[in-house]
Task: inverse folding
């Protein structure tokens, strides 16, 4: 299984598809999972591999999806009755172990995200320098020259994509197409006077105000840049600032890096153990009093089904 899992991970990386890898790094008996056990979680909640039973998997899947949203790894600790909760706390996400077997699991969850796309439309020293700097900063750089408008038709620009336009002749056409996409950053390399004229032209052509508000013109942070190389540095700094700012904000599922990121998962509380359960991936469910009730494991479901009225207060909470 580990070899197959790593092969799958390599294939997803090669295709530029996001996923999270969960690895058991430590356990205290009794646990069925042992150190080294792995699972791969995709943005739609599918789990391949195994890091524990019905108590561990939903927690790990939920934290993996959160890691894909914020891009940050985490150490998930599930502590059973009588188990020793690690004294360290920074960077650790704690959960109770609800399985009757008890035990403690420490699972490292690491997101693997595709490189952020940086599209450079046009030519010139600023574009050439930006291409070099962008690759060094870890972006997937695509330079479009010639008929840039036609080239843009073949690109899928999601909210993590950044686009810099510097055609010096066909900027309006390129910007009209780019601003109609969800691209997270769009800018124009031009003087303030020329940038203002282009914005006026776009407005006259009917480009909506909310789209124009997303355009950064002229491009780059105001660092007093003069040379093409300095201007390229100011633009890349602005791209990084915009990306980090978006990452710090609450991310709606529809704004994730690609359509595969779309995963607005509703949550419910297991009335037996109190664990939070992802509705979309819940494997155990009962219907009672006109509503659906979700559980982390079969034992909780069977306990509820035996005396549902007893847990009505927990459901109301």
Result:
């Amino acid at each position: 299984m580990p070899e197959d899992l790593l092969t799958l991970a390599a294939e997803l990386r090669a295709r530029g598809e996001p996923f999270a890898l969960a690895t058991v790094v430590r356990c205290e008996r009794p646990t069925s999972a042992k150190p080294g056990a792995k699972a791969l979680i995709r943005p739609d909640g599918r789990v391949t591999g195994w890091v524990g039973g019905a108590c561990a998997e939903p927690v790990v899947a939920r934290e993996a999806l959160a890691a894909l949203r914020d891009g940050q790894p985490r150490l998930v600790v599930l502590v059973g009755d009588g188990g020793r909760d690690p004294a360290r706390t920074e960077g650790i996400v704690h959960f109770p172990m609800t399985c009757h077997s008890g035990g403690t699991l420490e699972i490292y969850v690491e997101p693997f995200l595709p490189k952020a796309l940086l599209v450079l439309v046009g030519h010139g020293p600023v574009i050439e320098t930006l291409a070099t700097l962008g690759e060094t900063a870890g972006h997937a750089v695509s330079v479009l020259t010639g008929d840039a408008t036609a080239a843009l038709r073949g690109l899928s620009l999601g909210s993590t994509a950044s686009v810099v336009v510097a055609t010096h002749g066909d900027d309006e056409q390129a910007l009209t197409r780019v601003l109609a996409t969800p691209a997270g950053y769009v800018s124009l390399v031009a003087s303030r006077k020329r940038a203002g004229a282009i914005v006026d032209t776009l407005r006259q052509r009917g480009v909506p105000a909310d789209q124009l508000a997303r355009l950064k013109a002229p491009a780059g942070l105001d660092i007093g840049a003069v040379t093409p190389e300095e201007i390229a540095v100011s633009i890349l700094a602005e791209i990084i600032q915009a990306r980090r700012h978006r990452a710090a904000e609450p991310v709606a599922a529809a704004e994730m890096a690609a359509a595969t990121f779309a995963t607005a998962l509703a949550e419910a509380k297991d009335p037996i153990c109190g664990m939070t359960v992802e509705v979309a991936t819940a494997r155990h469910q009962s219907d009672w009093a006109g509503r659906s009730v979700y559980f982390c494991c079969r034992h909780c479901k069977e306990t509820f089904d035996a005396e549902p009225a007893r847990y009505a207060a927990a459901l109301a909470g």
Summary: The first helix runs from residue 2 to 15.
